[in-house]
DNA sequence: TAGACTATATTCACAATGTATATAGTCAAT
DNA sequence: ATTGACTATATACATTGTGAATATAGTCTA
């Protein structure tokens, strides 16, 4: 029933559900953008090369379009491979606003938990 | 391709991946506990009745046992239905410590994003 | 014309969670 | 005694979000 050696914390520390989506909405808030370019800007929000999954990025952008949060069109002219350029909608801005509220709740809950942990380890054990 | 009415923010605001597991490890840090009793204590970490999924709770406890983070036994004696009582292991304490670090990273990333959002909406638009 | 780089997309698989349901013991009231 | 409320644990099925791997193809330089 129990493994010989427990598997400790073998996940991706940066993984937070739908966090990528919120980051993309913010990047698109005041200027249009395309997949590959957005990937580079995501480093500002802690997405390293190792961390960012390109498949997930494109899939998320398409889903966001399906949900009406962004619109897209193929960039006219320009050199290099064609780019699908995304623009945020009013619905997208509204969704972003809601998500920011959610993230503030998440942050508060993390603070509560971490605070409780620090109190326990400082007083009792160790 | 695009829905008539976009579906806005229809998720569970309190949902954070594996957050329940970390809360349970913390609750079990210095005393044993069982499923139903832990469910009540979880309100301290923001889990409302609506929010907490009992199936998920029991399933998570069993998975934690499988991973060697806790051990369990059926409570001897006592009134009412039998309780499966859980106790944290040294591995569980170590895992909790790692998770706390992860949560601090998550919190920092949320702060970065929320800060960037607040700056955008205060200066530019609106 | 080969290799590096830019750019988008799909397929398959898995992990975490939600919904619904099943089971069963205890206790108080009728 | 038996119904209903409450305590307590657990499983089956489905959905969601993500990761890994792979496919396709245009551009640019050597």
Q: Would you write up a description of this structure?
A:
2 copies of one chain form a homodimer. Helix content of chain A is 50%, strand content 10%. With 126 residues, chain A is mostly helical. The first copy, chain A, has a single domain (19-123), classed as Winged helix-like DNA-binding domain superfamily/Winged helix DNA-binding domain (Arc Repressor Mutant, subunit A). In chain A, strands 1-3-2 form a 3-stranded antiparallel beta sheet. The longest helix of chain A has 34 residues, at 90-123. Residues 1-9 of chain A have low confidence and may be disordered. Chains A and B meet through helix 1 and helix 4 of A and helix 1 and helix 4 of B. Chain A binds a DNA duplex (30 and 30 nucleotides) through helix 3.
What is the compact description of this entry?
The first copy, chain A, is elongated. Chain A has one domain (19-123): Orthogonal Bundle (Arc Repressor Mutant, subunit A), CATH 1.10.10.
**Biggest interface, and residues per chain?**
A-B, 56 and 57 residues
Beta-strand percentage range of chain A: 5-15%
List the strand order in the largest sheet of chain A.
Answer: 1-3-2
The oligomerization state is: homodimer
Q: Do you know the CATH architecture of chain A?
A: Orthogonal Bundle
Largest sheet of chain A: 3 strands, antiparallel
CATH domain class name of chain A: Mainly Alpha
Tally of discrete structural domains of chain A: 1
First-last Cα distance of chain A: 30 Å
Q: Determine the CATH topology of chain A.
A: Arc Repressor Mutant, subunit A
- Taking pLDDT < 50 over at least 5 consecutive residues as the criterion, the unreliable ranges of chain A are 1-9
H and E string of chain A: HEHHEEH
Helix content of chain A: 40-55%
Output mean pLDDT of chain A.
87
General shape of chain A: elongated
CATH homologous superfamily grouping of chain A:
Winged helix-like DNA-binding domain superfamily/Winged helix DNA-binding domain
Provide a count of the helices of chain A.
4
């Amino acid at each position: 029933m129990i493994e010989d050696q427990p598997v400790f914390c073998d996940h991706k520390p940066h993984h937070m559900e739908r966090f990528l989506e919120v980051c993309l909405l913010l990047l698109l808030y005041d200027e249009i953008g395309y997949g590959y370019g957005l990937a580079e800007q995501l480093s500002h929000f802690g997405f390293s090369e190792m961390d960012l999954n390109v498949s997930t990025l494109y899939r998320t952008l398409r889903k966001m379009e399906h949900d009406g949060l962004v619109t897209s069109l193929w960039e006219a002219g320009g050199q290099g491979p064609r780019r699908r350029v995304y623009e945020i909608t009013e619905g997208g801005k509204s969704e972003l606003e809601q998500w920011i509220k959610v993230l503030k709740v998440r942050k508060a809950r993390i603070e509560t938990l971490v605070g409780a942990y620090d109190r326990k380890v400082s007083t009792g054990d160790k």
